[in-house]
Amino acid sequence: MQSQKKTARSFAAAAAAGLLLSAVPLFAAPGFSVSSGTPLLTQAPSTGAVVAQGGNFSLPLPDGRTLWLLNNIWAGELKTGAPAEVWGIVDGGAALAPSTSPYAQAGALVYVAEEGGWPLPLLSGDLREYSQVRKFWPRAGLMADGKYYVFYSIMNNFGQGPYDYFRVGQGVAVSADPAGPYAKARMGTRYSLWNDIEPAFGSAALSDEDGWIYVYGRVMTGPGEYAAQLARVRPAGLASRDKYAYYAADSSSGSWTADIAEAADVLPGLPEEFSVSHNARLNAYLAVYSGPDGSALARLAPAPWGPWGEPFTLLACGAEEYCYGAKEQAGFAAEGGKKIFMTVEKKNAPYLYEINFK
């Protein structure tokens, strides 16, 4: 298995040096089996309960717990045999589960909440930053140098509906405690490290064995068309924009550049939420995301920047299921990546799937 990892690294080194990029073999779809989905959000009928949640990015913690980052939490009342009643939506929150086992997550989430039990926003604790038109949505999170980092989107509402919003920037927040409080990194007087027309870096993040943290950001490439671009940074520089470099294989400055305008698209057709991890079993990097029809798709590559093989379907989804937000929860992977776990949201409720590669 170690020799396989070295092979993948040699491909990555060759591509980083600008060599043989087009000659690196693309991976064929592997054989696999997938379990029936387990509802992650399971609660008894009650008032003041969490009835739906979105985002669902997990991070195993050193103390044996799991942190879940959520871009929204729907709270209200659950009644037996009746639809849930929504009282309000908390934009950007978190929950903690007492175990790092994927089999112990369902129904175990304890939300970061005020004394009365109402979920608290994870990133807008300073009342001077809060308004009815601004919210902060956690994206990918990671632990580095003993601290917890959360990438987040800055969202502004333009109407009264819960989905009437648009992204105005992207930032990073840091805390010594996984439950917070988190301090937003600033660039001058701004706490957005990237603006609204730059990639939404932090959609996915990968701590690799080469000492770099690779951070992916979705960007519009044309009307209704999107792709991911790639940045990398050392752990000590996570909160400083000037420490990031951007993958730009075709630029005159080489594979990596400090000029974000030279950043290259590395993975086309991605939604806002996705994941990228290294899978030793597959001897490849694995991207997981939702396709236009809601199906959970995957692609493989020999390096974080590609080249990426053709997508294959991990889980089909019917239109009536309203599926979205597919991503791997990489911290739950077992047996060297032979077994992975993926969340898919269905009507604002997350389901956890086990995938076994052959």
Walkthrough of the structure:
With 358 residues, this protein is mainly beta. It has one domain (2-357): Glycosyl hydrolase domain, family 43 (Tachylectin-2, Chain A). Helices cover 4% and strands 45% of the residues. It contains one helix and 27 strands. The strands form six sheets. Strands 15, 16, 17, 18, 19 and 20 form a six-stranded antiparallel beta sheet that branches. It is globular and about 60 Å long. The two termini are 15 Å apart. The model is unreliable at 1-24 (pLDDT under 50).
Short description:
This protein has 358 residues and is mainly beta.
Q: What labels would you give this structure?
A:
about 350 residues; mainly beta; Tachylectin-2, Chain A; 6-stranded antiparallel sheet; 1 helix; about 5% helix; disordered N terminus
Shape: globular
Low-confidence stretches: 1-24
What structural class results from the helix and strand content?
Answer: mainly beta
Total of domains: 1
The CATH class assignment is Mainly Beta
The tally of helices reads 1
**H/E series, N to C?**
HEEEEEEEEEEEEEEEEEEEEEEEEEEE
The total beta strand count reads 27
Largest sheet: 6 strands, antiparallel
Distance between the termini: 15 Å
The whole-number mean of residue pLDDT values reads 89
The value of Rg in angstroms is: 20 Å
Assembly classification: single chain
**How would you name the CATH homologous superfamily?**
Glycosyl hydrolase domain, family 43
Binned, the helix content reads under 10%
Strand content: 35-45%
CATH topology: Tachylectin-2, Chain A
